[in-house]
């Protein structure tokens, strides 16, 4: 079953289809991770995007029940050099082809992913379509040009209703902008009493839950498309300790008066070095974002840069100078990826405990 990948600049790749026969349009991005494809395709932050995996062999250990970052993938499609037909792993339950067919997601294999990645690096992310080989490319190009990219991705992937994940430790309200299950897992591992709430939950509704801390999750798209969250953050800052990851980091910056901007092709992979400015230590991190906090915009705020990307110098961490709040652009829950930054969850627990002691002492 041949398929074609058509980019909005007119570039056409011909390959072998797998998964669903449906056609799809999305923003074409690339991820440099060598492993963890199951976590990547189930990461809600890829909502609206067609993901290119630069590692040449994908699907060789199959799909299992345990490594999902969400129940229903939001990715629009997958592009690989080679999709393994016969995975070999004791946990394997489905092939990549079987799983994508079951979830109605199209994929294309057998194309030059190195060439595609170089195009994206040179020109930036592009809209693209995966479709039948019989489809007229000119028709597809016209459709690409008149089809805008979605701006409500967070609404699509956030939980519709609040729900608890009980524990006996600190009460944490986890705001779901497209949460990876790894974040919830790390909080549960520390026995936090977690309440997961939708992206549009107000400051008053969160404070009524009497949290010891607030966690802002990752999520897809442009942070400026989520004004409800910015308003909420202005209402809770300084009242409850706060920890933000990825999109949560960007929303925190906007709420504090900084600005965000779209990157040329973003950071997506599990091998990104990040420097802690306080210690000089470099951690290898997992990342997935197409927007960044504009460094110049931080100067007139109460924010301080705590981490930077070694490769391009972009902002990777912030803390508030007056309030107990810090955020990072990368993923300390590391699914997939290294666990160098996992200690940030312990830092969050310590910050909640310190804040509670200070409140008690001043009561």
From TrEMBL:
Name the InterPro entries on file: Anth_synth/Amidotransfase, CarbamoylP_synth_ssu, CarbamoylP_synth_ssu_N, CarbP_synth_ssu_N_sf, Class_I_gatase-like, CPSase_GATase1, GATASE
Active site per database record: 246, 331, 333
Put simply, this protein is called: Carbamoyl phosphate synthase small chain
- UniProt-listed Pfam families: CPSase_sm_chain, GATase
Role this protein plays: Small subunit of the glutamine-dependent carbamoyl phosphate synthetase (CPSase). CPSase catalyzes the formation of carbamoyl phosphate from the ammonia moiety of glutamine, carbonate, and phosphate donated by ATP, constituting the first step of 2 biosynthetic pathways, one leading to arginine and/or urea and the other to pyrimidine nucleotides. The small subunit (glutamine amidotransferase) binds and cleaves glutamine to supply the large subunit with the substrate ammonia.
Q: Which Gene3D superfamilies match?
A: 3.40.50.880, Carbamoyl-phosphate synthase small subunit, N-terminal domain
The entry sums up its family as follows:
Belongs to the CarA family.
- In this chain, L-glutamine is annotated as bound at 45, 219, 221, 247, 250, 288, 290-291
Q: Which SUPFAM superfamilies match?
A: Carbamoyl phosphate synthetase, small subunit N-terminal domain, Class I glutamine amidotransferase-like
Q: What is the lineage of its organism?
A: Bacteria, Bacillati, Bacillota, Bacilli, Bacillales
């Amino acid at each position: 079953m041949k398929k074609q990948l058509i980019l909005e600049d007119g570039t056409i790749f011909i390959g072998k289809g797998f998964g669903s026969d449906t056609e799809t349009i999305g923003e074409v991005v690339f991820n440099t991770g060598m492993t963890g494809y199951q976590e990547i395709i189930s990461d809600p932050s890829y909502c609206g995007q067609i993901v290119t995996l630069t590692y040449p062999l994908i699907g060789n250990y199959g799909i299992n029940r345990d490594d999902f970052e969400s129940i229903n993938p939001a990715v629009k499609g997958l592009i690989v050099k080679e999709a393994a037909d016969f995975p070999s792993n004791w946990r394997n339950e489905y092939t990549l082809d079987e799983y994508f067919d079951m979830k109605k997601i199209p994929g294309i294999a057998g194309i030059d992913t190195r060439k595609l990645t170089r195009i994206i690096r040179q020109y930036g992310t592009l809209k693209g379509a995966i479709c039948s080989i019989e489809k007229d490319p000119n028709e597809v190009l016209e459709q690409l040009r008149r089809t805008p990219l979605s701006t409500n991705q967070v609404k699509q992937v956030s939980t519709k209703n609040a729900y608890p994940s009980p524990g006996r430790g600190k009460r944490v309200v986890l705001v779901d902008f497209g949460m990876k299950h790894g974040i919830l897992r790390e909080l549960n591992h520390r026995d936090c009493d977690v309440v997961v709430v939708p992206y549009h939950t107000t400051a008053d509704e969160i404070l009524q839950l009497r949290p010891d801390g607030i966690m802002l999750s990752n999520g897809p798209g442009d942070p400026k498309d989520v004004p409800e969250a910015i308003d909420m953050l202005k209402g809770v800052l300084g009242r409850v300790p706060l920890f933000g990851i990825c999109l949560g980091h960007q929303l925190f910056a906007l709420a504090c008066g900084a600005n965000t901007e779209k990157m040329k092709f973003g950071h997506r992979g599990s091998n990104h070095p990040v420097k802690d400015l306080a210690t000089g230590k470099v951690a290898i991190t997992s990342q997935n974002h197409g927007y960044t906090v504009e460094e110049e915009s931080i100067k007139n705020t109460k924010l301080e840069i705590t981490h930077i990307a070694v490769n391009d110098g972009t902002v990777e961490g912030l803390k508030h100078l007056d309030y107990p709040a810090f955020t990072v652009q990368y993923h300390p829950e590391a699914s997939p990826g290294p666990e160098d930054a996992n200690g940030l969850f312990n830092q969050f627990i310590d910050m909640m405990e310190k804040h509670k002691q200070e409140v008690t002492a001043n009561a």
